[in-house]
Amino acid sequence: MADYIPPVQSKFGQMIDVIVLLALAIGALYMPLWLGLAGSAHTSNVPDNPTWESLGQNATMVEKWNQLGYTEAAEAAELITARFDYSFSILSLLVMIVVVVGYYAIILRFSEKEYRDVISEKFGDR
Amino acid sequence: MDIWNIIEYAAWGLSAIFGLYIIFDWIKVDSTYSDEELMSSREGELEAMTEDHTL
Amino acid sequence: MSETDITSKTMDGMGPGGTKIGLARVLGPAHVWGLGVGIVLVGEYMGWNFSVGKGGAYAALLACWFAGILYSCVAMIDSEVTSTVAAAGGQYTQAKHIVGPLMAFNVGLYLVFAYTMLEAANAITFGFLIDTVAGMTGHEGLDERPFIILAIMFLAWLNYRGVLATLTFSLIITAFAFVSIIVLFLSTTVFLGESPLRHTELMTDLPYGWLGVLAAMHFGLWYYLGIEGTCQAAEEVRSPARSLPFGTLAGIMTLLIAASLTWYVCVGLMPWEYLGQAGVPLFDAARMTGSMGLMVLLGIGTMFATLASANGCINDASRAWFAMGRDHYLPDWFGAVHPRFQTPYRAIIFLVPIALIFALGAPLDQVITFSILSGLLEYTFMPLNVILFRRKWPLNTIKRGYEHPFHPIPAIVLLTLCGITFFAVFLGYGSQLVAMLSFYIVVSLWFHFWRYRFVRRAAQFTMPWPRPQGY
Hints:
C: mainly alpha, Amino acid/polyamine transporter I, 68% helix, disordered N terminus
């Protein structure tokens, strides 16, 4: 098999390639923000007139909260009652699984094809 | 204007000095040496010299 | 072509012949340890505690151990492959030889983005710390930007000037930060007279049940994220076949100790609801002991940890970028080495503005999530990598500097834990996961159908190995 001779890329072309790559990366970083999908869902259920007892805090915990600068139960109530929302739909889980598995499948498939070229050029055809 | 303002300016200044050093040295190197020489590094140098991969 | 002469003076990319200026081979095993632990240790000073928020104190401990198993597998697998594939670019170069070019391109990008984002996050934290110190001395409204920029510029300069000084610096400040954790642990358990730790009273049941334990795995990675960066030094270590396995495995042991101690001290001093959202948990822990000395020590420790981490990140990201440039995966302009300092200087310079954009422009949690996800994709690649490595070059075909035991159990364990972690990230950060995977899919298509045409085929396979089995 004849060795593959790559074309020479112009300086301008090289710059374009780097810019494309960076634009895509920055796009991926900001896309969830623009779509308002970033961050995880929180719920917080602060009772009226919270006391340390109603928040379920024992004497040691209260002492530690005081030491951290939270002298009133009401100040810490928001923190103590905050909970993540872990509910999810089976559909979105399936979508995620398909995307992850599909991603690796695409890469491994294309890589294998390219790898066979590399090996046959390096070690010669069988 | 307290000590922290001065530290802020110092930080700006030092950043500029480090940045300028890098840029000047970069320009100097790129104009002194040919690209061919600068980009002559090849992978696997050590392998070829010190490791024998056949058992 | 199978009789390729690897010492040929004329063939490109086949050995020492062409190299006039190469990277400096000056590092020892201690530097490898400093690089690996240095990048990661900042995770003990901040970030790991979000796993407490996601599942409670016990969930964080379980996540710490499961992530510890995950990373022990990573370290073993990595040690074997990298002690054999000793070249800059680390996992990128491994992928190129073992899996294939497109995988290698993706791995190279995981590395560059994981490290550059982590560098940005460290710089942001460094600025925040300076602001906190200024606040404690009564100065309000400090401009954090000059300090963020200074951290990045100084470390870039250090990296530019040579790898030995860079990693010696990392080694010293990492050792300091590690010793600080030990001192905090010993002080709270032994030296302070009556111990301030109150585990019995502060520990609660799992607030989210077992689902919380799964969710905690997301930030459980932070106890160790980046230890695999030791591989990037491969081309600059004096004897990679010995130093890399030693430095990496010593590193993961150090981190297992540091992570357990950190968890133990912190949950004994703070209610989990506070700890789960704290910005600088170890510093808070020192504050809770009421000892001024410990506070100063852990404050400096936090600062050193962020600098060591950013330093290692610049080192690793630039090596990966450089290696990809050298192979024409990226413009070959980046494949240049500084004639005097022997560093990949153009890659270092190029990544400075990128890091600045992320550090000054993007929100911290986005940056960190992108970094964690890139890391996770990389860990998922590793078991595939080692399975193919053993299949294409079984143990008796080439010499390995280190052989990891119990193959393929570590690979299977790692793959399973990665699957669990994908699910943990999905709980709460699913949209980021999909956004980022879309990015890698688009970039992969771009590489396969456009960029790969500029890559020479055989020349990128540089290891003097026999033909892989089955090809």
